[in-house]
């Protein structure tokens, strides 16, 4: 699901007629910019109260930079990091089409559901900063109305991003209040340009041009000076005064009685400006003031009239504080001060109409399938029945579409008594409490919902949640409650609770309709995996893939694919693991999610499969690629590093493996979301130690707490096996055998084919050393059967020279002779690597559309200059893309790049 927002947020405001060109300020701003080299400072902060012309000033300035201006108008609903980033990148992409692609993948790779980790702000900072470094041409990023932002994560992000801006990028921020940024430090370092209220207040010369030349007031110099003294150059108040003066018969008296108090200005404006309009226009202004944004059709519907377009054009012509929000002048808004004034007067003039106006506005938005606007106006109604009904109908889609912040804002506007009328809304409120860490309050809400469900009769419900519902609606409520309870159980580490409540949720949430179903299926699969029910876990993950694709919840599809691959990797099913990795990569490519952290960990997992197949160079490349992509999510990075450590161990880089494992241990201490992985890390650490000192490895293992057999998982089996190896190395043969006898039935019971294979190899070595050749061959045969079927190689090679005579005996006896010969060839050095299929490996980093276009022209023999001319880009741009192409293809030159691209079937 993508983030939804009004595209008008990205439109650069249109300059209206009748504005004063602020040349002195524009010159000051221009002094900070040189078109050849970029910006000398990183931030321009324009901070002043409402009505000081901040937006108009920036709009005048950016004319010099068009089309290299990314504009974003902010509001209170932008206070969520992923949503804010999405909007900011959309603004940047109006200038740079392919900019910030890696950060977009970061956005797609994060969830806003209960039980998931918080957004990794540090990773967001790194990735977004790196994306901005790739922008070479000067770019001005304008953030309008930043005072609406109070989210600490966004403040942290922008602080770090601004401090690391390249010279090609400059932020200009308009705000009514200073952001909580280190402005003092930036001043000292000369990285900040500031314009404040005193700076952007009109000076006498500007006021004279505005009042006399543009507004036609014909004031003398002393009169302008008096007015400037009283208004202190506040542009909005000067505009109000100018409109008032047009209807005044005694200008000196007006100026004498006039004060600069803003409240007086508003009162006077009501009497002299608003009331000075003809009655039809007055009524239109007052009654449309309930609308934050409006079009002629919306106004017609709300006011039961047909000439709204004419009135809007008239308002714009007379400069009456109306602002177009798009280039086509379809959507408008009022100046905030003007809007407040109008609403204040609406309550006095038409109090009986307000409810009907909001009702009609809500109906219009609902008819246009714009639920957010419908809900906003429905919440403004005294009777919240419609608001409850709309929220119940759309809350799930809005949750996933715009993030839970907007939903949270709506629920905050409803009192507890209203929310209690709808069990569904009460459950969503409990989700917000869960996300905030208020587990006890969330649990209390769930108990209350449970009590209401027990006493509530079933019958068809009308629009508006009264607590009475049809069987279908009751099933949805039960399912939603089950999902929240499962999430709560996950927070508490209650596996039994996760399974119990997940089943309730899956039994009740509508198949193919609920966006939550795939998430519940994943949580349920995790619980089954923890207790070793791998078949059930796999079934849950497969269901999550199907449900996620049906519901178009792409994030959950990626997570489910990963879980599915990991569970097959756990049990040692290499073929299925590789098949799932390839299937996921194709899905990620088609959906544009190939660079998400989740895709990264799939690269790393695939690399570990290749490690076991003894394709070590490719394994190292894949796991390194996975770690690079996973850096934006600390939880996913932990998994990628785990696979990377295993590759390091196999290629003999024991110190590197140990270093990575210690790093993973540190990461594990910061999360409780990866139950069991701590034991996997300890098992791998023991294998590292075993290569150095078997006694030290044994002491390390005996100091670890193994899980009980009732909760045995893949890690337990691996730990027992490495302990058996350490015991054999220390000559404690009987204890080693006892350990194998303990682990082998567990591996059989759980279907852990990798554990079965390794155990049988150890038993074969034991029997062979005792001269029990037949018993040795019996154990080895089962290991070879699995190994040949799944493609195991390293599991045999890790035994070193000791396994050679045993394999030779198996070959002599005709036990999988071709397979044993392949293993013997590698072990004896007659074959340096397993022969690979002749299908080329996929690129670690795919070519972009532009790179493919340039590569095709290169293959046609075009020179760089010819390509630049054909694509209307600079010669340097072509060279830059060509360098990237050579790097991705590991090519030395043009000829090499074309040859490798054809080998990979990238070009014909």
Q: What's the N-to-C terminus distance?
A: 35 Å
Overall average pLDDT: 83
The counted number of beta strands is: 9
Figure out the total of helices. Answer: 47
Radius of gyration: 34 Å
Helix-strand makeup class: mainly alpha
The portion of residues assigned to helices is: 55-70%
- Sequence of strands across the biggest β-sheet: 4-5-6-3-7
The shape is elongated
Percent strand: under 5%
Largest beta-sheet characterization: 5 strands, parallel
Can you tell me the residue ranges where pLDDT is under 50 for at least 5 consecutive residues? 111-117, 458-467, 707-712, 832-839
Describe this structure in words.
Helix content is 64%, strand content 4%. The protein has 908 residues and is mostly helical. Strand 1 and strand 2 form a beta hairpin. Helix 23 packs antiparallel against helix 24, helix 33 runs parallel beside helix 35 and helix 44 crosses helix 46. The longest helix has 22 residues. The radius of gyration is 34 Å and the shape is elongated. The two termini are 35 Å apart.
List keywords for this structure.
908 residues; mainly alpha; 9 strands; 64% helix; elongated
Write the layout of secondary structure elements.
Layout: H1 23-30, E1 33-34, E2 38-39, E3 43-47, H2 54-62, E4 69-73, H3 81-93, H4 101-108, H5 121-133, E5 139-144, H6 152-163, E6 169-175, H7 183-188, E7 192-196, H8 197-200, H9 204-214, H10 221-231, H11 235-245, H12 251-257, H13 262-274, H14 279-288, H15 296-303, H16 308-317, E8 322-324, E9 332-334, H17 336-349, H18 354-367, H19 371-379, H20 385-402, H21 404-413, H22 416-419, H23 423-435, H24 439-455, H25 471-492, H26 495-508, H27 517-530, H28 534-550, H29 554-571, H30 574-591, H31 597-612, H32 616-630, H33 634-650, H34 654-668, H35 677-692, H36 694-702, H37 714-729, H38 733-750, H39 753-769, H40 773-790, H41 794-797, H42 804-812, H43 817-827, H44 849-859, H45 864-871, H46 875-889, H47 894-903
Parallel strand pairs: 3-6, 3-7, 4-5, 5-6
Antiparallel strand pairs: 1-2, 8-9
